[in-house]
Sequence to fold (263 residues):
Amino acid sequence: MSEASSAFEPVKSADRVLALIELLTTRPDGMSFMELLESTGWPRSSLHGLLRTMSDRGHLDVDSGSGHFRIGVRLWEAGQAFARGLDLAAVALPHLERARALINETVQLAVLDGFENVYVAKVESNHHLRLQSEVGGRLPAYATGLGKVLLAGLPPLEFERRLASAELMRFTESTIVDADVLRVRLADIRAKGYALDEGEYTLGVFCVAVPVRGPGGDTVAAVSSSVPTVRASAGSQGRMVEVLTGIAERISVDLGSPIGSPP
Fold:
């Protein structure tokens, strides 16, 4: 193995620490040692050593009664530091509300995590018929307007790295399940500056999404508006693109992007 290739090999202990954090994040009530042992399949001594180290450093808490391991205060502090450093939702929310006032449709903000988009802010329309989603929820990026905008903003090599470990599952007849088709679609999104989702994840839902830029001009988030197909028309699509593009540029400027567009 060459030095260049070995430099990109994952460090097993670090990978296991992160896997433990991700696992316990999904279990707010904690997990026992035996549950963790069964879930991970790691050697008993390795798991015990990782848990002891993370507990000693404050990254995990151990319940004295049940013996369950939970996320600790140090990880909570790390999360708070991220929120203070960017506070993306707080910056974007007034602009999302402005967009909602202009088009009276649900408006959302999302970031990319792996090959999924994660919703970080949302304002609802006044319509009785509207999209069901929630802040903190996540969806496969290749099957949503938001996600395709975020994937289109990745450097090509990073996109290919993430694509290599992704499974393109079909959710509707419109879902993109061919990698070459996805690449072409993302190139089109980069050229146009916005993405459409015409029932690719949920039948009957139409979505327009545009990128939000950071200080360096890179895509750091995406804004979308989702409507039932029965309310979508050529005129409403154009209006949504216009409003969302303007709103995304304002958010980008607030985040430090000089003009809200790529460098």
